[in-house]
Write a structure and sequence with these properties.
The chain has seven helices and five strands; from the N terminus they run ααββαβαβαααβ. With 197 residues, it is of the alpha/beta class. Among the domains are: 50-116, Ubiquitin-like (UB roll), CATH 3.10.20.600; 130-195, Orthogonal Bundle (DNA polymerase, domain 1), CATH 1.10.150. Strands 2-1-3 form a three-stranded mixed sheet, with helices on one face. Strands 4-5 form a two-stranded parallel sheet. Helix 5 (142-148) packs across helix 6. The radius of gyration is 41 Å and the shape is rod-shaped.
């Protein structure tokens, strides 16, 4: 009987020790930190990235406008958008500005005033051109310039129109020499065939 009680006590003591050891191990076991949540990219973040990818450009608008200055637009915007931001004045003449042309970063857009076009407005009552044998380089299309002027091919004729659209009408026939490709020799060949009004 005494032997059985000693065995029982020893078993109880061993069980208690085993429980204590298990509790100690469980309390001091290192648990790895939870993994951080990885959130998928939202549509808004994608849109912001795409927006930053769009190329920003700067253009200067001056002349007959209410607020001349540098304006920030996006690549692919047109001249009329820049001119609208600068608010054209009532006397602005937009006919030769090239409003539908695509903007180029760093360019200047000068809006002429109507009084600069007086010569174009004051035609004779008979509606006859002031120079019937000359071509008006402020009005002619690229095809008309090519057909009428000696030594002016399609590329050069288009450059004349592009220069006119970007810088306003020619004030005198000599201004055509500002167009790339028209030097003094070529000007001498065409000067008797052109007019600015």
């Amino acid at each position: 009987m005494n032997i059985s009680q000693r065995h029982l006590r020893a078993g109880i003591v061993g069980l208690v020790l085993l429980l204590l050891v298990g509790y100690y191990v469980a309390e001091h076991r290192q648990i790895p930190p939870p993994l951080p949540d990885i959130q998928p990219a939202t549509g808004q973040e994608i849109n912001l990235s795409e927006e930053k990818a769009e190329q920003e450009i700067q253009v200067y608008v001056g002349g007959a406008v209410k607020s001349a200055g540098v304006y920030y637009l996006r690549e692919g915007d047109r001249v009329h958008q820049a001119v609208a931001l600068a608010e054209p004045l009532p006397n602005a003449d937009l006919r030769y500005v090239g409003m539908a042309r695509e903007l180029v970063d760093g360019e200047s857009i000068l809006v002429p005033e109507l009084q600069e076009q007086d010569a174009l407005q004051n035609t004779s009552a008979s509606a006859q051109p002031a120079h019937p044998n000359k071509i008006n380089i402020n009005r002619a299309t690229a095809a008309e310039l090519e057909a009428a002027l000696e030594g002016i091919g399609p590329g050069l004729a288009q450059r004349i129109v592009d220069y006119r659209n970007a810088n306003g009408p020619f004030k005198k026939i000599e201004d055509i020499t500002k167009v790339s490709g028209i030097g003094e020799k070529r000007f001498e060949a065409i000067k008797d065939s052109i007019s600015v009004y």
